Amino acid sequence: MQLAEQELVEAMAALLDGDRVLAGSAAKRAYDCDAYTVDRNAPGCVVLPESTEDVQAVVRWCIDNETPYTPRGAGTGLSGGALPAMGGVLISTKRMKRILEIDVPNRCLLAQAGTVNLKLSKAVEEHGLHFAPDPSSQTVSTLGGNIAENSGGPHTLKHGVTSQHVLQVTMVDTNGDVVVIGGRVAGQPGLDLLSIVVGSEGTLGIVTEAWVKLTPDPEWVETALASFPSIRAATETVAEIIANGTIPAALEMIDENCLKAVLAAFPLDVPDGTKALLLIECDGETGATRREIGEVVEVCTRHGAMAVDVAKDEAHRKQLWTARKKGIGAMGRLAPTIVTHDGVIPRSKLPEMLDFVYEVAEEYGLGVGNMFHAGDGNLHPIFYFDDRQEGKIDAVVAAGEKVIRKCIELGGSASGEHGIGVEKSELLKLMFDESDMRLQKDARAVFTESALCNPCKIIPDQKGCVEHMRRWRGAAT
Amino acid sequence: MEGRRDVMAPQNLDELCEAMRGATFVRISGTKTQHSYLPDTDAVELTVSGIAGIIQHDVADQVVEVWAGTKVSDLQSELALHGQCLPLPLDDALPTALSCADGTVGGLLAMNMPHALSAQSGGPREWTLGMTVVRPDGTLAKCGSKVVKSVAGYDVHKLFVGSRGELGVIAKAALRTFPLKAMPRHEARVHGRATAPLYVSRSLRTGFEEALSSAPGLVADDPRSCTVWQTSEPPQPLNGWCVGPGGYRSRSPQPAGLEAKAKAVFDPDSKLAPGWSL
Q: pTM for this one?
């Protein structure tokens, strides 16, 4: 039984100081969704714990009072992972932003879950180290959120996603106990439980602290921005760079529609008639890196690149990254609402897949731009539209589903880095049959049978999830 | 001992499922190159070495799907024809304990032992994209994907990497391949002759010198990953972890309750022989 809201707020205020409990209509509205704005549901209240003990106290209370609870980092998630689907308590890690220990000789660091991704790298910058996962949200998104979603980013092609950089987590489990999983020395024998926790979207417990690996800065970095007269020329270039045996640190693609938005906001020197940009970064040992970028430029030119701009210095490099880093924000200039999708295909299927994305957008009367991790085959179609127009939300949900179905059909995945959340739980069943889903449920059952901890995500089999989904998807399904 | 034990050697997936369904107490094996790490039990042996071969190699996508019984050396030879490889040390002079070049793909994944390029190219967990497993009741289930990046669902395939045949049988796996020409050179140093089984330990960088200086029966070390291979058990206390005959020790042991729960959930009838005497 859920308690009346006032009672909930009072109970939380008794556990934490008063200013760490947010309630009322403004708070409820601010926290009724993450960056997946299509589905919304207000929490009963929001709490701002500062420590593992605070989180534990809140979780224990929720368990005792059968109240659902949902963890949230910066709310930049793109599949609704931080949506309080069943209401209840929203546990924000916003104030858990302390870096607790920096161990330079052992190249690792202990931080609270609410620490902003970029702050981790900033904290060890002077030692020539950094935290490798760099999701586009890294200036705001938190370590805890990155762990929950197993976040990627432009540089994961070479340096790996979040799971490769997390050594140990402290988690408040769904019994309200604090467990420590993993170890500071990588490759620990025994069952790799940590690999299930990372990417579990906050469904197995709430990670409150983590030891993460720090990566030495590369000796040398080379960055190039190449302009292509067609999408196909760009995608074929991607295929050949990889086939040649080069693994760039980043290999990003930006299509014409995204470029338009970027150019409207930032000065960028690209030739007229550019239909696609490739941003290519190589890093590592100086000689090898210089050789690699030389080869990359050669491949680009052979595939008809109209211009290849190689960064001359750090300022120039930053400028070349502008389009990619500021792209999503710039998309706001094209329409009031954008929805970013996420799917993966074998990268050799990129040309075919992109054609399909443009067809789908046209079919549903939506604008679409593509800005994505081409080297990984990780697609991010960004649909833009005016959500005040009737039927557009349904159209964007349907179009997204169609794109993801195609990804799966081509041998890919329903999600490369945004997660399943509430958005894709139905689509997961296209990848996994009943027996595969049983394996998924068993993995969850190792940690929890709770229906309270971040319900309705990944496998929405908790009470009330079907009704919730029906409500927000309305007549669309 | 060996001769007395029954061995089941299924030749295809159906036979493998059938064997699992019918068995009451089994130990899974490949070519048993790391057999001596596992505790001796009276379990029937189920070897996957008869189910071998490459299912599909998408050269351009750098993904290969193989049967678990495929020999690592055979796979490497096949991949090399296309300028690719699994990122394991390609140095014939290295003891096989450091190169992991011996044995089957299933064994490589299930044991997840360190190799001489662990620091540079990661362990099997980093390049296993997905797999199909046979569960103790004989049913098939797949997890992960066949693409280089996926966050669809829980990463159950990673749980099977290093699970030492305790949760189910790995039947086939999708692996990321790497360009041969970009392979880093290992920095491991070989000091003595390797006689199996070895104790393998890893420490924090700050504890490596000490671990190295006090390593009885030192066979090899890798300063990059701070790993030591030796013939005798390293002394207590550890500042990392150690794996060797009979089991493993760690400075940060996993919550025992969770390990036991995993075993109970995945193998409810305790059909699969323990990979370690936990």
A: 0.95
